[in-house]
Amino acid sequence: MSGGLLSREDELAAVTRAVDAAFTGSGAVLLLEGPAGIGKTTVLEAARRIAGERDALVLSARASELDRTFGFGLVHQLLDRAARPELLVGAAAHAKLVLDPSAGAAEDAGFAVLHGLYWLAANLAEERPVVLLADDLHWADVPSLRFLEYLARRIDGLAVTVVATTRPQEPGAPAELLDELRISATVVRPGPLPREAVADLLAAELGATPTPAMVETALEVTGGNPLLLSVLAREASNAGAQSPEQLAELGARGVAPAVERRLRPLGPDAVATARAVAVLGERATADDVAIVAGLEAARGAVVEALDRLAAADVLVGRAFVHPLVRAAVLDAMPAGERAALHRAAALRLRDRGLRPGAVAPHWRAAEPAGDERAVADLRAAAREAVTEGATDLAADQLARALDEPPSTAAERLDVALELGELEVRVQRPEGPSRLRRLLRDGLDGDAAARAHAALANHLVHTDPAAAVSELEQATVDAADPTLALRLEAGLLEALLLADVDPVRLRARIDRGLEQDPPSLAALAAAANDRALRGNLPTDELIALCERALGGGELLATVGPASSTWNLVTHALRFAEDARGAERALQAGDRAVREQGLLAATLFVEQAWGYWHRDFGSVALGAARARSGLEAIRAQGMVTTVPALSAILAENLVELDRLDEAAAEIDVDLGAAAGTFIEPFALTIRGRVRFLLRRFDEAETDLRRVVAFADARGWASPNAVFGRLRLAEVLAATGRADEALELMDHDIAAARTAERPGCLGMALRRRALAQLGDEAIDTLRDAVAALEPTDLQREHGWALHDLGARLRIRGDRVEAREPLRRALELAARTESALLARLAHEELEASGARPRRERLEGVGALTPAERRVAQLAAEGLTNRQIAETLWVTLKTVEVHLGRSYSKLGISSRRDLAGALGLEGEAAAA
């Protein structure tokens, strides 16, 4: 039933180019798109032959309607047999979450799975070029399509080619994902066969040259579709048709009657066998077919029937010659018979020990019958789907399990709760009502706590106060200690983000602290609160932070995607404990890598952005903030975009890229307005506007920050930098007395909190509002306060200001020493802005400083700087790509550009060029 490769020269050329791309290492995606029967699969088979002749590793899969409900079903076909243990290492190990479910998984590991499968493909391609063939993508499951789209966007630089087929506008197809795949693919649309090819096909089947009228009729009734032409030609041959009128009559019948006419003479065993194969799919064994067809006692008859079906051009092996033929067989079955066959298939496959995800589609196609085996398989398949990140599919599995239904009231309750939780996560409207109904019906204990927590997640962005109420009730109901800690952490986060009365927040913290032992979540929130208020001596604050971290227990329990853990890293930073904060963040990095949680990168990268601003390299701070932004945009977490944009802008300012900083931060706060995020974003936006000399706008932003902090008792100068930045604006606009008053407040607060760095920052801003010797004396005190701290960039700015004031007073020689030290600290922290201004002041003092080294490193983009840093630390290109969630080619391009800008030719020279020799590079 095939039109062969008649008139497909253009398609074959496209296939050849695509296969060539695998051998040149450039990678390619070729999508063959067209209606059923147009010849897509025939071209795909040509790709298999071409790739095989060149000794590529050819991995193939074909989807069917049933595969839509089998998570990663297409991926299993493609990769199961090729995924050897030695290939599942590094980032590719995350592919085990799909290919080896016994490996276990973190919840919601969807991105880790995609990343792992990508690296598995990359590992396979290191051995020899890989060609992936995927037929009928319009029937593929959503998780598999997500993988193919993920691979397609990163395929440049891999020795991998994907050739796939799909139908346009197929009902039920995931159109959005297919559209995204098209963006990265070369799309080829095979057209109808021309008259010459139609004439050749008819002649081959009829044994005689058809008349021009017959060719025209054949074209008209089939539209030049190769499959329909083949069916028509064979039917015409069998019927002895010799006229256009006879062809027109046969063509009007379509494929289904032709299939029925082929099956009928083969006997009832062949019909039963064809129906069983249509239900089971092409991977069925002869025993599977015999059992599902009800012919278990006559296995030999099944084997014979399979042979007869192949001879009649209905099957090729266990596969139908075309999906339209399979569809015709399925459509000819009464609905009840088809459902019964699916039930038989489910029982057979579970007896064979197939994974629940492969069995579940058959249970879903069977009639509900209260079968505990169906419930068990569907629940297990849902757990698999959650592990693989296919939460929508998991919800569908549980909904079908509930319909079965479970035999006991307790299990019905469990399934309904699990379903409600998943429905809320995938934003299905029935989820909240289901959970509230369960709570009204008497759900209690941990189950009730879970329901309240799920409702809180549903409400957190639309009604934060209601979310807080749900979480408060959840903490009352929870009995399991781990669940209780997670809920307490979630409640405290919600209280922060909802911007509730600080008295209420602190009362909740105190309740957690009164427990025996105190809740780690409460300790974390207390550490952050006391750090912001500045009412705890530094040593005691650091000790409180260490108690909250619990030797790693807090991170292990709530995970790096929790802001509770992140609050402690910020508290350590407020306490000016650079090394303690660095150790905590390095633990967060490890957790992100091990769990592959893309959402967690928001918190880790944001915290690193602030850490580098204060203690490290502003170039790395910008790179990490940008990495976090890319992650949250990929996840659609728009509420948190201002938090990352802000710290990215802050680091860009220090990189002397003010225009870029303005573009990042000068945006509407959107959903972040009125939340805990707002003051941190506003204080940085205020600084950028101040540097742009938009003084009124800067003052408005910064007064909002100060009001926000005052209302919550945040007295620490480095909490949100509000007073520090506002003092800069006031001093620049001639309001020295008001600036001095603000800084006197911060100086007193810094001394109360025993934070020398805060003291130095406040003294430096105080000097902005002073004149002559008074300002110089204040700046000397600022330098002395900052000297012993790890706040190198702030120390550099204090030295710069001191040198500038000395030069202005006429002490040009004395000015040079602090300015040279400022220049050194600018190099160490990679602050191009500080370097430029210190350099200008040195020149004004009569010195002739060199700037070559600064220019080399300063020319690197944030992304180039991060890649160069990791390479200097000894990571391979592959390890860098795995760490940064990018492709090998991206790493190679960034390194190549870095070498050029730094004037080096070898990886060995990177540490020296970056100024890292003799010091441990910060992660």
Shape: elongated
CATH class of the domain at 9-188: Alpha Beta
* Fourth-level CATH superfamily of the domain at 9-188: P-loop containing nucleotide triphosphate hydrolases
Beta content comes to under 5%
Largest sheet, in brief, is: 5 strands, parallel
CATH fold description of the domain at 9-188: Rossmann fold
Q: How far do the termini sit from each other?
A: 61 Å
Number of separate strands: 7
Number of helices: 49
> Into which percent range does the helicity of residues fall?
55-70%
What is the CATH-assigned architecture of the domain at 9-188?
3-Layer(aba) Sandwich
Order of strands in the sheet with most strands: 2-3-4-1-5
Specify the structural class: mainly alpha
GO cellular component, one term: cytoplasm
GO biological process, one term: regulation of DNA-templated transcription
Domain HTH luxR-type: 853-918
GO molecular function: adenylate cyclase activity; ATP binding; DNA binding
Write the layout of secondary structure elements.
Blueprint: H1 9-24, E1 28-33, H2 40-53, E2 57-62, H3 73-79, H4 96-99, H5 110-127, E3 130-135, H6 142-153, E4 160-166, H7 175-184, E5 186-188, H8 195-206, H9 212-222, H10 226-239, H11 244-253, H12 255-263, H13 268-280, H14 286-292, H15 299-311, E6 315-316, E7 319-320, H16 323-331, H17 335-351, H18 356-365, H19 372-387, H20 391-403, H21 409-425, H22 430-440, H23 445-459, H24 464-477, H25 481-497, H26 502-513, H27 520-533, H28 538-549, H29 553-558, H30 563-574, H31 578-595, H32 601-615, H33 618-635, H34 641-654, H35 658-665, H36 678-691, H37 695-712, H38 722-732, H39 736-753, H40 756-768, H41 772-786, H42 792-809, H43 812-829, H44 832-844, H45 852-858, H46 862-872, H47 877-884, H48 888-902, H49 910-914
Parallel strand pairs: 1-4, 1-5, 2-3, 3-4
Antiparallel strand pairs: 6-7
Helix pairs in contact: 1-2, 5-6, 6-7, 8-9, 8-10, 9-11, 10-11, 12-16, 13-14, 13-15, 13-16, 13-17, 17-18, 18-19, 19-20, 20-21, 21-22, 21-23, 22-23, 23-24, 24-25, 25-26, 25-27, 26-27, 27-28, 27-30, 28-30, 30-31, 30-32, 31-32, 32-33, 32-34, 33-34, 33-46, 34-35, 34-36, 35-36, 36-37, 36-38, 37-38, ...
